[in-house]
Design goal:
The protein is mainly alpha-helical and 121 residues long. It contains 5 helices and no strands. 72% of the residues lie in helices and 0% in strands. α2 runs antiparallel to α3, α3 runs antiparallel to α4 and α4 packs antiparallel against α5.
Length: 121
């Protein structure tokens, strides 16, 4: 009987700990829906891959364009946060495309701005 009680207590403690981990992990900032956040994180990942030399500027540009289109076409619950994330992703794309980068956007700075908006380190 004591072994069963110990097992049950152990399972409950582990379950509570896992729930707390999931609650505290990641997740969209307040006022931003999860899909917008996920698309923003995808853009950050693409940006990091480009800076690390894992993908070319052309590949990064294509992928960022797709993410920006996904944000543009998504009817977000909070359209203000969606617009801000979209604009930051569009800035990343623009920074990679000299033909359209009239204002001289810097890729690293634009990536930092997106990370700040998503509350990522």
């Amino acid at each position: 009987m004591k072994k069963n009680a110990a097992k049950i207590t152990f399972i409950v403690v582990i379950s509570v700990a896992l729930c707390l981990c999931f609650i505290g992990c990641g997740g969209a900032p307040k006022g931003m829906d999860q899909k917008t956040y996920d698309l923003g994180k995808q853009a950050v990942s693409i940006g990091n891959d480009y800076l690390a030399g894992k993908i070319s500027a052309s590949d990064a540009s294509d992928k960022l364009y797709d993410v920006a289109a996904g944000l543009y076409n998504y009817d977000a619950k909070n359209s203000d946060s969606n617009t801000k994330v979209h604009d930051n992703v569009a800035d990343l794309w623009t920074a990679l495309n000299p033909k359209y980068n009239w204002s001289g956007l810097d890729f690293k700075n634009s990536l930092g701005d997106l990370k700040a908006l998503l509350e990522m380190k």
